[in-house]
Write a structure and sequence with these properties.
The protein is α/β, with parallel strands linked by helices. The protein is built from 19 helices and 13 strands. Helix 15 runs antiparallel to helix 16. It is globular and about 60 Å long.
Amino acid sequence: MSKDVEKLIKYRKEVLDTKSTSFCGAKWYNATTWLGSGTTASCHHPPAHKIPLVELEGNPSAIHNTKHKKAMRKMMQCGERPRECEYCWKIEDIPGDTRVSDRVFKSNIYTNEQLEAAHKADYNDNTMLKTFEIAFDRVCNLACSYCNASFSTTWAKDIKKDGPYQNLVSDGAAAFQQDGKWTEPFGRDAVTAETNPYIKAFWDWWDSGLADSLEELRVTGGEPLMSGETWKLFDKIKARPDMRLAINSNLICKDKILDNLIKKSQDIKKFHVYTSAECYGEHQEYVRDNFIWKTWDKNMRRFIQEANYEGLHIMMTINSLCLFTITEFLDHVYTFKEIKGVKSPTVTLNLLRFPSFQSPLSLPDHIKIHVRTKLMDWYAKQDDRKLWTGIERANIERLIDYLDHVDAPHRRTSSKATLWRDFKSFYEQYDIRRGKDINVFPEILTDWLDMLPPTIINVSGLKDGDSTKNNVGEEDVMRIAKEEGWILQPDNKNIDKPLGDYDVD
């Protein structure tokens, strides 16, 4: 365990756990809110929940301070673990108590005084945010394999053109059987305060104290650079020179848009860009449909050399397919760091849990051992690379242990047989719809896929392993469906879950 990791573990024990062993500052001071659909979460790990319009009446801060979040705060003050925060509990429960969960990373950005105030506060208080991530809409030019129509209009076009993906029954797979229309309750063009009450609440709260409280405003999507509302924020932030403005962008954009982004950055004192990638070359272009590796590489190098920025970050979504070239990708990232001889850009390794069949934990053991060994061997040679930060090293070490010690991405994950069959069924359809070929990946993966039988799932006549439990028949499926809130779709005989609900917990 590195000294940096030791410091983070010490912080958790001496600062967070002394308040309660489940305390996390993100529940008070951080939020991600999708203004288009009116949903929110305390960070990007728990499932989003709906913001009741009635709670907004006279209280625009309810786009963050929902009754649901307040109930979770009470649990954390009492040392109880909210089930929606299972992402962190999985990491902290790895044997040996040596791994750093995101509870630490998302709390140590706040002062001890702020954390102490949150712990002692009435859980019903309306808290002023410090870090806020918002999405105005879901417009996006990419359709990444693990994303879905709820967050990408390009994904929505896939579903509208070719219909729902068939023969998928594992947890999270229902996301590929809907077109995301639920994310536009006020219409596709309702992206202003005049047409969307959630956007109105955001600007009302901004003018009544939020702008003075925020330390960082982060805009996500979709692809924020495709939203007119995003560009308006640059002018708003000018009046708040101490506020960080962060933009999540895939950076797969034309020169004209990048020129404008670089130009706007010159007027922002604390500007951050968070981009997304996690594997190398044609593997990345397969995983993230419409991603153009050469464009991303060119735009990254231009931004590093020409933009005015305080931070540049690469958010890696650790899925099953990225692991085959993750070390090549990290080597490439290091060449970005060397352009200016500084640690930026930095990387974070975010473990994908939904859909479960795309989680790295859903790979068969012999493949997990193969990719983990490759990553371990690569990491053992990184001691001389001084531009890797302590947090980056902690993220890499966490992934190595995650692949070794954690068996499932969350509680009540579907059986391995079901996950494997959904994996094969999804990518067979993905290849046809997107004009791709999974044979770009190594034989250790494709040989395994060739061994799996084809999957045809019907509500009646289910075969063993073809549902989320092993060896169940139709009656058991109906019982499970009722318990877990699924909807049995009579049109295509697929099992679906309510739209936007990815977590059966």
